[in-house]
Amino acid sequence: MTGAAGGPAIEDTISGLRARLDEARARRRRVGLVPTMGFLHAGHRSLMEHARSENDLVVVSIFVNPLQFNPGEDFDDYPRDLDHDLAVCAQAGADIAFAPAQQEMYPAPVATSVSIGPLSDVLCGASRPGHFDGVATVVAKLFSIVGECSAYFGEKDFQQLAIVERMAKDLSLPVRVVGCPTVREPDGLALSSRNAYLSAAERAQAPVLRRALQAGAAVVEAGETDGAVVEAEMAAVIAGASLARIDYAAAVDPATLARGRPLRGEVRLLVAVRFGRARLIDNLGCRAG
Ligand code: PAF
Predict the structure, then answer these.
(1) Tens digit of each residue's pLDDT (9 = 90 or more) over 165-209
(2) In the chain, how many domains are there?
(3) What is the enclosing helix (H) or strand (E) of 82?
(4) What pLDDT does 2 receive?
(5) What is the CATH number of the domain that holds 264?
(6) Are 169 and 136 in a shared domain?
(7) Residue 35 Cα: closest atom of ligand 1
(8) Nearest atom, ligand 1, residue 37 CA
C-alpha cells in the first residue's frame, strides 16, 4: 500500500514491512523505528525527528496493543485517529507508517510473554500488573519484525525505556535503544495522549507533577540522601493539588529502579498521579552528592 502524495507509505502486513526493510538494508540504508500507539503529538514528532536525523529510513508503528491494558483500563476508549497520525508522520518526514490490524499482530491468542521481572513489578507495574509484560512482548515482536535498527522511546515513560533497554540487551536483539527527552507544554506538563482525558480544572492542576519533581530534585541537590524524605517532599507538593490522587512518588536508582538505599550519584525521581480518569506520569534526573 502507498500513502497519499508526500505522506508515508502505509504498510499493514508484517511480511510487507519485512520485505521493504530487508531491501533497504541490502542497500546499506540505516533503519530507525518509532513504536507508538498512535494519537500522535509533538512528543512523538520529536522522536520521529530524532530518528530522521540518524537514519535513512524511518518507520513509525501505530498499534494500540491490547496486551498492555488490564481489564477495566482504557483499551476501548484509547484515542485513535489514523488520518491525523499519518499527517504527523508526513510533517516529521517518516517514510513508512506500519499500522497493522489486531488480527495481523495477534492472529491467535498469544502464549509467549516477555517478562523483565525486577524492573516490571515496581512503580507503574505495581498498580498495573502485567502491563510491562504486555509492553515488552509487543516491543520484542516489533523488534523481530523490523530487524536491525535504532529504536526511539521517550524518557517520559522512564520505566518502559529501562525495561526495553534491558530486554534488548538480555536477548541480544540487533536494536540500538535510544532514549529521547520529554516534550512539555509551556507550563511544564509532559505531553501524553492521555492528557486528552483531563477536564479544564484537572488540566489547570496537572503541572503539579513537574513542580513536585523539581521540589524533590532541589532537596536532593541540597544534600538530602534519605530517599524517603525526598519522596515525602514530592508527595506533599502533589497533595497541594485538590483534584490529584497520588499513585506514587519515588526516588530510585536509574538502572535498577530500586528504592530504599541512601541516594548516591545519579537518581531518578518519578511520580504517577491520577486526575479523574487520567493517570499521568513524569520523571526527572538529578544527582545526589
Ligand atoms: O509507549 C507506547 O506508546 C507503548 O507502550 C509502545 C512502546 C508503543 C508499546 O505498545
Answers:
(1) 999 999 999 999 999 999 999 999 999 999 999 999 999 999 999
(2) 2
(3) helix 82-92
(4) 46
(5) 3.30.1300.10
(6) yes
(7) 8
(8) 3
